[in-house]
Amino acid sequence: MAKEKTVFFCSNCGQESIRWVGRCPGCGEYNTMTEQKVAAAAKPGARGARSTAHKMRPVRIDEIPAQDHARRSTGFTELDRVLGGGLVPGSLVLLGGDPGIGKSTILLQVSGALAAGGTRVLYVSGEESARQIKMRAARLSVDAPELYVLAETQMEAVLSEAEEMKPDLLIIDSVQTLYCEALTSAPGSVSQVHEVTGHLMRLAKTMGCAIVLVGHVTKEGAIAGPRVLEHMVDAVLYFEGDRHHQFRILRAVKNRFGSTNEIGLFEMKNQGIVQVDNPSEMFLSSRPEPVPGSGVVCAMEGTRPVLVELQALVTTTSFGMPRRQASGVDYNRLILMAAVLEKKMHLALGNQDIYINVAGGLRLDEPAVDLGIAMMIVSSFRGKALPMDMVCIGEIGLTGEVRGVPQMERRLAECVKLGFHRCVVPKDGLRGVALPDGIELVAIEHVGDAMELMM
Q1: Is 104 annotated as a binding residue?
Q2: Spatial distance between the Cα atoms of 199 and 179, rounded to a whole number of angstroms
Q3: RadA KNRFG motif: where is this motif (predicted)?
Q4: Is residue 21 located within the same domain as residue 103?
Q5: For the whole model, what pTM was predicted?
C-alpha cells in the first residue's frame, strides 16, 4: 500500500508546495494554501505501477485521417454561434457564471430540446434533488422521455451510470460537488476538482459523448478551483450579466472548435431563458429623445455588428480631485479620451466629473468606440444633443487623429438596417469599402472635425 504524504495546494491557481507558505509562489495570493493528503506514486517496476510497454508511436501528419465532427444543435442559435456551430461529440465544455445567473436554467432547456429530438441526455445534479429539478422542468415546460436525471455526488457512481447508459450528452451541475472516494480531501478542493475533471475528460474521449460542466466562480469572476481546470477542457464559456436584470451575455474565452470572439445574447423571462435574435434593436428600444451626452456607436462582437447607446455625463466636481467612472467600456480608454480632448481641443475638463455608461449592460472592448466616447463627452459638456439618426465609428490616437477600423461594410449595413441615415466615420477607413444605399457618410480625419460638426 502506497504511503500517504501531505502537500499544500493553492485554492486559486493549483500551485503545489511541500510546505505551507503565506503567499502562493504561483499567483501571488495570500492565505490560499490548503493542506491535503495524497497517495505517493508507485515506483517504476513495483506492483501496480503503470506499464510503459505499449507506447504511442509518432505518426506523420499527412497520414492522420481527417475527421469532420458532426456538430449537434442545442436548440439555441445564439448558443450554437458561441460554440462554433453546436456541440461536438466527445468535447468537454465548462460553463461558469455568478450564482442565480441562469446556468442551470439554460442547461435544462438545452437538455429538453435535445431530448425531444431523440438525443439521450443524462443530467447529473449534485446540488438539487430530482424533485427540485422536476419542479423547474415543469415551470420551463421541459418534458422529454430521453432526458434522465441523476442526483449523485460520488464520481464512481456517475461513471458507472454513464458507461451503462451511454448518453449522447452528459451535464454535470456542478463539478465542485463531485468527489472521488480514492481521495480523502473534501469535495471542491483542488485535488478533487482536478481528479474529477480528468475522469470526465477520459469518459468524453472514449465514449464520444459531449460533456458540459457547470463551474462556480469566485468573487473576482474566475472559475473557482485550480486554473488548470480551464486548460483541461475544450471550451470555457462565461454567463455574464446582473441577476437582478433580464439580459444575459454568453461569452467564450476558450474554444478549440470555434472562435472566441463570438457572444450570445439572452433574456431572462418567466418561461426561462429566451435568446435575442436582434441585439441592436433591443439595446436601442428604450432610447430617449435627443439629449446631450447620448448617442449611438457600432461595435463588433465577433462577426456580428451591434449598435448600442453610449451615454456620458459631465458635471462640475464637488471635490478637489475630479472623478472618472466607466461602465461597459475600458476605464483607461475614458482617461485617454479625456486627456486628448483637454490637450488637443483645449476643453477644461480638469474640474469636471466624467461618467460613461453603455446602456443594456454590454461591455465594449474594441477601440472603434473611441470616437463615440469623445463625442458624448463633448455633447454633455457643451449641452449639445446629437441627431437621433447619427452613428459614430472610429478610433482616436494620442495626437487626435481618427483612424479606420476593420469590417466597415458590415457596420454600415447594420446602421442602414436599423434606420440610421448619417454616420461619422474615419476618412482613411473608407478605402475599398462598398458603401450601402440610404446612408450619408461624414468622413473626418481629426477629432476637431467631429467637434466642429457637432457644434
Answers
A1: yes
A2: 11
A3: 254-258
A4: no
A5: 0.76
